[in-house]
């Protein structure tokens, strides 16, 4: 009683009345009261700040272990598929642009043209007309008659003029000069049109990192090719070629190296260009692309793919043996086919002539004759060409009449195999005709172009059979991305229906909760305005279901329910809770109307 002395009589009477009052609480309110949020010990635990705070690991595990809805399962499947996609951000693209592929193929066509033009330069014996190597200033031809006389005077000092072209005047010199000058200028154009775009594509990130390294390597190969070209010309300007009986010509070894480097540069451009286009085709339709890749991985095609690889090496070696024939003018002897003299092969003393040995014990007799004796060099080229053509016919027969290979080989690869057979037949016809007619310039140039064309068809066939692991990875990523996009579009189409359904069912739920709030107010529940506000902040989007499985609660409804059943609050706030329920019901009806 001493504690009550300091307060007013009215407050003491109310306190004693409240002390002995028995509060009636219905069962529904008790259930809602058990769900009420705990008391806020500090401002950090208020619902408003908790809404902006990230969930802890334990809470995330608890949410993931709860009963999953269909949309939740769909979201998890999308998340699992998105893990297959690259997560690291990089300024380099995954695939090179199509424009890079077209540029590479255009550069390859330019190299193809300069190879043919270089063959014409050799056949017209114009390669030694320019006796100096000036990579920058040499790009400008003589401009007046005096400059032409000075250039012609330098050519007069070469072994070729004194041994072969001593009858030549300035006008004749101009014809061979323009051939060599055009060949060198074309080489400069190839280098510039490849070097500058390479830097541009790398700077603007139009190529992936691996392709960037390859382009830089091709640039170095082009520069090396220019150096080999001058190194080859220099071999035809040696002083020992002034001796009587010597024939001024470039070294057949350096000529072969020059042609082989050009072939390699061309094939690098062609292969990488086709690879980029192939990646884009596979990524554009990843489902069919994956089926194609799986088809190419069948065991039935392993032997066929290995044979195509061996065939590409055989065609390249045959072409290089043709360069030895050209460097030694071996096509001007034994101009018959298939005979060489009285038989299929020439006499042994002609094939292995001791004249070509450089040692007393003649240990180098065989390989020297194989590389320097025109008779044996031509025989080697005939054998290699016949072997190549026979291998192509056998490979086509294998692809045509083997049931396993025929069933597994893609249609594009079958067409490429037929193209290889046709090109090989044309190349054999050109070679035999060139031999019969004593190497005329048009046929010889066409035969050289045919060698590169045949190698091109073989590489096109290989590009449709050989698929790197990188393509597998890109196709799988594209397929996962496609499924992810399809799932996202399905969710976006399905979401409005769910919201409408939730809003419709939510109207009845608000009525029920509104009636519950009225009953609680009439029973004498002490409601507090802060309880309603706290209930609104602590509302969660958990869902209950009717007997028919329809969704009952939304986030706003749950907030109103928990606000109405917050505990022993002031009875004057019941009207406020009822008014809030009406407002929520009106808002949901507006959503349904819209």
UniProtKB/TrEMBL annotation:
Coiled coil: none annotated. One of its GO terms (molecular function) is metal ion binding. Residues 485-515, 574-594 are annotated as: Disordered. It catalyses: Fe(II)-heme o + 2 A + H2O = Fe(II)-heme a + 2 AH2. The keyword Membrane applies. PANTHER family: CYTOCHROME C OXIDASE ASSEMBLY PROTEIN COX15, CYTOCHROME C OXIDASE ASSEMBLY PROTEIN COX15 HOMOLOG. Its main location: membrane. It comes from Zasmidium cellare ATCC 36951. This is Cytochrome c oxidase assembly protein COX15. Keywords: Heme biosynthesis, Iron, Membrane, Metal-binding, Oxidoreductase, Transmembrane, Transmembrane helix. The chain crosses the membrane at residues 100-120, 185-203, 215-233, 253-274, 307-334, 381-398, 419-439, 445-467. Pfam families: COX15-CtaA. One of its GO terms (cellular component) is mitochondrial inner membrane. GO terms for biological process: heme A biosynthetic process. It is a multi-pass membrane protein.
